[in-house]
Structures are given as C-alpha cells and as structure tokens.
Write a structure and sequence with these properties.
The chain is α/β, with parallel strands linked by helices. It has 4 helices and 14 strands. Strand 13 and strand 14 form a beta hairpin. Helix 2 packs parallel to helix 3.
C-alpha cells in the first residue's frame, strides 16, 4: 500500500519478461476505485529485459525502418575485441520515458553508451541532464546526431555554424591524430544543414572536414570532452563506413579512449 501523499512508485527486482502494473485507489471513507492497469489495454505489456554486457546501444533513429544502422553497429560490436557481442540495445521509438530518472537508471546499468540518431530531432538533447549525471558518475558515451544544442553545457562546443554540404566518397573526414582512421561516406552525400564545430575550453577536436570539400564554416566535426568521457560527432556515424574504417573508429573510442 502507498500513502496518499505518494506521487510516484519505483519497481525493482522485476523478473525478465512481460508485465502489467495494477493500481486501485481507496479514499479516506474506504471507497475503492475500479482496478486500473498500465498499459491500459489487456493486449499490451511492459517488457523487462535483463542488462547484458557493459555497452548500451541507444537506437534513436526511429525512421530506420529496416534497422540498417542498428544492424551495422551490431555486426561490428559482435566481433570487436573487448566487446565480443556483449551489449544491450534500447530502441527509443518516438518518446523517451517521462521521468529522466528512468533514463539515467537505464544507462547506469552500463559502463559505456552509444547514442545515435539521424534525420529526426535527437532525444539526447531532451535527456541532457540524465546524460550529464551519467558521465559525472564515470559513465562514457559516444553521441552521433545532426542536431546540436549547447544551452545545457553538455557538448564542449564554443560555437557551431553550417549549411549545405556535398561530400564525395574520396573526401573523408580527417583525424587530427595520425593513429585514428579516416572516415568516409560510401556514396555522394548531401546535407541541407550540416554543422561545423569549434571547441570550448573543455573540448578537443578529433576530426575535421576534408580540405577538398567546399565549406566556409568551422572545420571540426567530431569533438571530445577533456573532463568527461564524452565524444560527439555531428554526422551520421552509421553512414561513415565507406572506407571500412568504422570498426577501427569504434575500437579507438570504446576500447582505447574510454578505458
């Protein structure tokens, strides 16, 4: 029984599988409501999945109907030494959980997170407070998203600006450090509003746009925080395996940089 002042309830130690939550309200006179359920239809359930591995892949690309990006990441992490297929997947869908504490609690099961999106507005912006708390408690995260929001202080970006970009397969993003791989598109790629970055005091640029691309904006496209284990790339990472180097990039981030 919950006290009448309760505004929320947390459920723990649930067994993996399908569940429904039932609730009945009793007033001070002892009159009871009908039994409520959540979800509120008999043919829907909450699925509880046990965490597996130290890596969480957050699929925030709901328009990827065939899961091409997710399947690419899974194929890489299935064989990447140090991950070896031990990871979990969270497909966000159209909305995050209502409470950011639920987002944080989910991420806290894992040491590392890959959060990626593409065309639609990325939910990482909405979850910035939860992500910051996760990182400040020794979590590590790679974010791939076109949308940038510096108002919450999460990304170590001093300024960003951009516009139309047309990038050829032979114009890969270039690493600042020589031991990182180049990252190229598989086909000609056009962006209507691509953003270049400059680093804030707590930031370090990892990749720049190729000098052969017609581009009049900041050159940075991948940046890391120097005070927390956070890497952000303002391009769709799932499209950047044209040179076959995406596995090496993910190894550099998750196995070397975050360890």
């Amino acid at each position: 029984a919950l006290p009448g002042t309760a505004t929320s309830v947390g459920l723990s130690e649930l067994e993996p599988g399908f569940h429904r939550f039932f609730l009945k309200i009793v007033d001070i006179a002892g009159a009871a409501s009908t039994t409520l359920s959540f979800p509120d239809t008999s043919d829907r359930y909450w699925e509880v999945v046990a965490p597996y591995g130290n890596l969480l892949i957050i699929d925030d690309y709901s328009l990827d109907a065939n899961n091409e990006h997710l399947n690419l990441y899974k194929s890489i992490f299935d064989t990447l030494e140090g991950i070896d297929g031990e990871y979990s997947v969270w497909e966000v869908g159209s909305n995050l959980p209502y409470a950011m504490s639920d987002v944080l609690a989910t991420m806290n099961y894992f040491d590392e997170v890959l959060w990626y999106s593409y065309f639609q507005l990325s939910h990482y912006i909405e979850a910035a407070s939860a992500i910051t708390s996760y990182l400040e408690n020794d979590g590590a995260m790679l974010i791939s998203a076109l949308q940038i929001d510096t108002s919450n202080g999460l990304l170590p970006i001093a300024e960003f600006e951009g516009g139309l970009a047309r990038i050829m397969p032979n114009q890969p993003f270039m690493p600042v450090q020589e031991d990182w791989p180049e990252l190229g598109f598989m086909t000609i790629f056009s962006f209507g509003n691509m953003q270049g970055l400059t680093a804030a005091e707590n930031g370090e640029i990892l990749y720049n746009i190729n000098e052969d691309v017609i581009w009049d904006y900041p050159e940075g496209f991948c940046i890391r925080r120097t005070d927390l284990d956070l890497v952000y790339i303002s391009a769709p990472l799932g499209e950047l395996n044209g040179l076959g180097t995406l596995p090496e990039y993910l190894r550099k981030v998750f196995i070397e940089l975050f360890e």
